[in-house]
Amino acid sequence: MELKSLVSKLHPLERTVLPVLKKESELSRIVKAAKLKEVEVMRALQWLENKEVLKIDSEKKKVVVLDKNGKKYLKEGLPERKFLSVLGDKFINLDEVAKKSGLSKEEINACIGLLKRKVAIDVQKEGQLIFKMGPQGDKLLKEGSLEEQFLRRFKKEKSIDFDSIKDIDKFAFDELKKRKNLLKVEEERSVSVMLTALGKRLVKKDLGEDVVNRLTPGMLKTGSWKGKNFRAYDVEVNVPKVQGGRRHPYNEALNIIRDSFLEMGFKEMEGPWVETAFWGMDSMWIAQDHPMREAQDTFYLDQDGNLPDAKFVSKVKAAHENGGGTGSTGHTKLWDQGAAKKLILRQHSTATTFRYFYEKKLNCDCKYFYIADNFRNEATDATHLPEFGQAEGFIMGDDLNLADLMGFVKEFYAKLGITKIKFKPTFNPYTEPSMEAHYYNEKLGKWYALINSGIFRPEALAPYGIKKSVIAWGMGSSRIAALLTGKSKLKELFGPEVDLDWIRRHKRVKIL
């Protein structure tokens, strides 16, 4: 390409960057010299690379940088130095050390163990701990510890190449890395440019300022504006990718579940995240001394809520205390209205089912579902999180039995492409009989619980006046979503650990 033709195609950003390339080749220096933003410089360099003016060399490396406490200690000194600086030849107690050094209790506790290992302090216990300077204390104050020497490097260097840390520095790094928010390892991109033969000729040329960069219809007709040429536009140049909005794959999977229910003739329910313990447990005949009501399993709020009308509450109370006329003895314990008023984060969506029994006065052939967020205070693993999705549902009709329930489960999951299912009996406080369904995860090579279900007990239905039988279930909608999206862990599907590139580029979620 002729230089004259090339110059006519240069963007203002390219014109600003090109003169800088006579002396600078490293990105950060180019940014500083050109007085542009890094993104503007990178865009100009990419355009120039397309024009074969230069070549971009980019590599990633791990670097060590200071975290929050690292920046603080670089400025003020490490806690152990402050600790040593208040000691002398005579013993002083812990309160004096804290007062003179200004260290927190946490920092002092860390210093004691560290300085004892370095033989820098003498410690005795006379009612309380007392301290004085140890054999190596003065040396540490004068020369500084290995950790201090490593930390001081950041006064001259913004970051330290991780691969360059060896031997003594490696020991100091490992020690400092154990401390909270002191050092962190990040990935840093290094970009440099090398001019081609064409580029070397171009940077020597006077680029001038006689190019107009804004096009108008008139300029396109005449090819000039007030005697000045306008810049030619390269329609094949690389431009930044624009990420358009799209539905999250988790929501795509939930819509597949929702559509499956709707296709089977179900109506959708909705309910609140925050419930009273009454709707979350009492209304469905869960005993007030049941383990799931403990704080280890349920998130409690520090307020109470309101109960429904007194007549209905009295029927629930009777079901708990004596079976409520069902022929059952109930839980044979006094029911506490105060415990039922406690506000909780909804731990299962069955609370919404019983709300619908009450609010809709249901006692007819019907079927409802609800895809809901729920919360339980439990440890996380591949298939468990404190927040989880549940697809709740029930069918109300005459003489429904376990065979009807198993038939529904198989038909529903077949619509999603899940056919490897087995059933086993279980216990639920408000259903009898109760049943679990498990699916086989081919990727993990294990069976996992997929659904908990059963037929609602008379004691649970009696307060609502329901005479028909009700089969019901709660299935892990988030686990189904993980299956449909090919994820083995729920944390890979939603939350802070999700790969954003996957969110942007994933293919449309389909049934298995």
Structure summary:
This protein is an alpha+beta fold and 512 residues long. It contains 22 helices and 19 strands. The strands form five sheets. A seven-stranded mixed β-sheet has the order 10-14-15-19-18-17-16, with helices on both faces. Strands 5-1-6 form a three-stranded antiparallel β-sheet. A three-stranded antiparallel β-sheet has the order 2-4-3.
Descriptors:
BirA Bifunctional Protein, domain 2, seven-stranded mixed sheet, flat, 19 strands, 512 residues, alpha+beta
Describe this structure in words.
- The chain has three domains: 67 residues; 119 residues, Orthogonal Bundle (Arc Repressor Mutant, subunit A); 254 residues, BirA Bifunctional Protein, domain 2.
- The protein contains 22 helices and 19 strands.
- Strands 10-14-15-19-18-17-16 form a seven-stranded mixed sheet, sandwiched between helices. Strands 5-1-6 form a three-stranded antiparallel sheet. The chain has a three-stranded antiparallel sheet with strand order 2-4-3.
- A hairpin with a 2-residue loop joins strand 8 and strand 9.
- The longest helix is centred in the middle third of the chain and has 15 residues.
- The protein starts with a helix and ends in a 7-residue tail after the last helix.
- The mean pLDDT is 86.
Give the count of structural domains.
3
| Total DSSP helices | 22
The stretches of 5 or more residues where confidence is low (pLDDT under 50) are: none
Radius of gyration: 35 Å
What is the general shape? flat
In total, the number of strands is 19
Task: Tell me the β content.
Answer: 15-25%
Tell me the distance between the termini. Answer: 54 Å
Helix-strand makeup class? alpha+beta
Return the CATH topology of the largest domain.
BirA Bifunctional Protein, domain 2
Mean pLDDT: 86
The CATH H-level superfamily of the largest domain is: Bira Bifunctional Protein, Domain 2
Q: Largest sheet at a glance?
A: 7 strands, mixed
Helix content: 25-40%
Q: What CATH first level of the largest domain would be assigned?
A: Alpha Beta
